[in-house]
Amino acid sequence: MFSSKKSVMIIDDDLRRRKKVYDVLKITGFDIFSASTGQEAMGRLPREKPRMVIVNAASAAVDGIEFIRRLRTYGMGQKMIV
Fold first, then answer.
1. Nearest C-alpha neighbor of 41 from the set 76, 71, 19
2. What's the rounded Cα separation, in Å, for the pair 82 and 46?
3. Closest CA to 41 of 17, 66, 6, 20
4. Looking at the domain assignment, is residue 11 inside a domain?
5. Is residue 82 a part of any domain in this protein?
6. Are strands 52-55 and 7-11 parallel, antiparallel or unpaired?
7. 75: Cβ contacts below 8 Å, ≥ 6 apart
8. Domain that holds residue 25
9. Residue 15 has what pLDDT?
10. 25-73 confidence digits (pLDDT tens)
11. d(Cα 41, Cα 63) in Å, to the nearest integer?
């Protein structure tokens, strides 16, 4: 189950890139959560329940396929844009 708020989690190991995405989304009214690794994100996803997750697919800190598998174990990721 997702939160009813406009919320997004940004997952990227590059702090500057996370900050840029954060700044753009914040002015549009999103509640934003961020994580630098997939493991950190998985620890927060069940609690935060964001409506959208943005993942840097080229990040060394996130294995995209494994992340999607784990996301689905939490009942998330039914609709996904890759």
1. 71
2. 21
3. 66
4. yes
5. no
6. parallel
7. 1
8. 7-73
9. 94
10. 999 999 999 999 888 988 998 888 888 888 887 776 667 777 777 777 7
11. 12
Number of structural domains found in the chain: 1
* Beta bridge mates, 10: 34, 54
User: How many other C-beta atoms lie within 10 A of the C-beta of residue 79?
Assistant: 6
Paired tokens of 4: 């009813």
Burial (CB count <10 Å: 0-12, 13-18, 19+), residue 51: middle
Q: Give the length of the chain.
A: 82
Tell if the pTM clears 0.90, that is, is over it: no
Distance CA 26, CA 7 (A): 10
Domain CATH number, residue 44 = 3.40.50.2300
Between residues 79 and 40, the one the model is more confident about: 40
**Does residue 2 lie in a domain region?**
no
pLDDT digits (tens, 9 = 90+) for 53-66: 888 877 766 677 77
Q: Is 40 a domain residue?
A: yes
